[in-house]
Amino acid sequence: MRSAALALALVAPMLSTDALACGGFFCQTTPIDQSAEKIVFAVDEAEGTVETHVQIAYTGAAQEFSWIVPVPSVPELALSSDTLFSVLEWTTAPQFWLSYEERGTCEYDTWFGGGGVLENTATNGAGGGAPSAGGGVEVIAEQQVGPYDSVVLAATDSAELLQWLADNGYTIPSNVAPSLQPYLAGGSYFIALKLQNDADAGDIAPIKFTYQATAPMIPLVLTRIAATPDMRVQPYVFSSARAVPDNYLHVQINEAAVNWLTGGSNYNDVVTQAANEAGGKAFATDYAGTTSMLDGMFYGPGRFDMDALAATDDPALFVQFMLNMGFPRGAAVQNLIRAYIPMPQELIDQGVDESSFYNCLECYREYLAGIDFDPVAFAAALDEAIVQPLVEVQSMVDAHDKLTRMTSSMSAEEMDQDAYFVLNSDMGDVNNQHQAQHVIDCGTGGKLSESPRWIELASGEIILLPPIGTDGSGGMMWPEDLGTTAASVIEDASGSGEPTPVSDNGEVIADGLETHNAGIREDYEAGGTELPGDLDGVGTDAPAGCGGCDGVGGTSTGWVAALGLLALRRRRV
User: Fold this and answer.
1) Per-residue pLDDT tens over the stretch 151-193
2) pLDDT of residue 122
3) CB–CB of 416/219 below 8 Å?
4) Residues of the chain whose pLDDT is less than 50?
5) Closest by alpha carbon to 281, among 2, 467, 84, 560?
6) Which of 5, 13, 10 is nearest to 55 (CA)?
7) Is the Cα dihedral 330, 331, 336, 341 positive or negative?
8) CA–CA separation, 281 and 218 (whole Å)
């Protein structure tokens, strides 16, 4: 019987993504190292299926691109959309907002300007015929999907599987063989992708595959082959209820460790530390709640008038209509523009760069007359590669009431078991919008740079901060001692009920905050600054000692040793 678990991993010679600075449709790209694996799951409990979307980022020669992923059953393949990932990122990323209160009459230093108190400007953390098979490898299906040639294979031996892939033009590192073995033993099928002969690396697009399964799973055992240290692992789960890690732990972060002054710019670092405090095997929940904010976000009737585009035989007007319709300004659209509106060689010879040309086609109208432009074919290509994936994404979103986004950070040595996720109807939602208040009390005529200031969290906790003018950062530096413990609670969640606590660090965090506040109070008083009356008692009851702390923020050392067993308690087979 074949495994009911999904295994997902990218195996490619070089991984990267691009930072985009866009004008019109064309952007200047700066390669940056990929440090995250983002995966979107949609669970259909009635049909017993899991739909998986993967955004593949790759830099390198087109002929060297290959991708392999184990799945529990023969899948249906289709293209997905980069827009799915970008929209999910900015709608669900944790946001840390400060409201500002300036008390009294503040005197502004000349270096500070006169426009008011510091403002929180940051917003988040964070073809051909069927190939032949031989030996122990069986070709189950093959098809073209967008720019890809794909096959679905069954195999019993990793060496034979890798040999078959090599013989058929797939570039897969040989050192992946040991990590493939558990999936072979479990009876998994394998999807393999490579670019078609006439495609290049810029044609790479997100892929979607749907298969029979009971729960989403990230195949970390295979992922570790290409993992970077503390690699970000970020699953999104569309479902009928909140999703939680089943055989990994769950952490709630210490909000006092987050740099509120920069909009939570260190959020990912806090999650990394919290996961490490849980033995390197835990997920934090960034968001769990309704999908209503995604209503009509990807597609709505009439959004794209493909008939009007097909009837527009002027290349400059065609692109302008695309802009007006709101086509996503990503690599997929850029590559289609290149293909159907090739840059005239005369302009290339003159030294005109493609960004200047494509972002102002009207400026080069005299050169467009020599282009053999086919608007019907261009519109059809846009419909296949862009519009239909967005239609299907919107349909997926509309079919699910709940969305969960989780984040972890793991290194290769910590990826010794695949991560499963289950649905839990008993656990509450998690809001990604976090708010606190920043207060500066200038009294009457006090300098802004020297006046007492503090942050009050939604929980009521007070965090005293040094004066703005003391650290050389304009008051944006976060005290390091507040990040000693990143995990407020480490817990073990399951498919029902509330999670079981493994470690509650609330008392340790409270003691650490009190010690911090005492130090800041002492500095203010040593400088002759009296704190306002509403801070009476804050920082005056610092603990004399740690009382059994283990030096890394835990309440004791005993729970750390037990983490490995706890994480494996519900290991699936």
Assistant:
1) 999 999 999 999 999 999 998 887 888 889 999 999 999 999 9
2) 40
3) no
4) 1-34, 111-132, 546-573
5) 560
6) 10
7) positive
8) 13
User: Rounded distance, CA 276 to CA 269, Å?
Assistant: 11
The H or E element spanning position 195 is: strand 189-195
The dihedrals phi and psi of 203, each to the nearest 5 degrees, come to: -85, -5
Residue pair 228/460 in contact (Cβ under 8 Å)? The answer is no
The edge-to-edge listing of strands for the beta sheet with 242-245 is 217-218, 419-424, 242-245
Measured at the alpha carbon of residue 231, what is the angle toward residues 227 and 236, in degrees to the nearest 5? 110
Virtual torsion, Cα 168, 169, 175, 176, nearest 10 deg: -70
Residue 517 belongs to what H/E stretch? helix 506-526
Q: How many residues does the chain have?
A: 573
Contact 461, 317 (CB under 8 A): no
Answer left, alpha or beta for residue 528, where phi above 0 means left and psi between -120 and 50 means alpha.
left
Residue 497's CB is within 10 A of a number of other CB atoms, namely 11
Burial track 326-347 (b if 16+ CB lie within 10 A, e otherwise): ebbbbbbbbbbbeebbebbeee
Written as six digits, the tokens of 540 are: 């005056």
Neighbour-count burial of 526, counting CB atoms closer than 10 A to its CB (0-12 exposed, 13-18 middle, 19+ buried)? exposed
Q: What does the pLDDT read at residue 129?
A: 42
Q: Which secondary-structure segment (H or E) carries 102?
A: strand 95-107
- Specify the residue for token string 């558990």: 182
Pairing relation of β-strands 66-71 and 189-195?
Answer: antiparallel
Q: Coil, strand or helix: which one is 235? A: strand
CB neighbourhood size of 371 (10 A): 13
Strand order in the sheet with 487-492: 76-79, 207-212, 49-54, 36-44, 231-239, 402-410, 282-290, 249-253, 487-492, 500-504
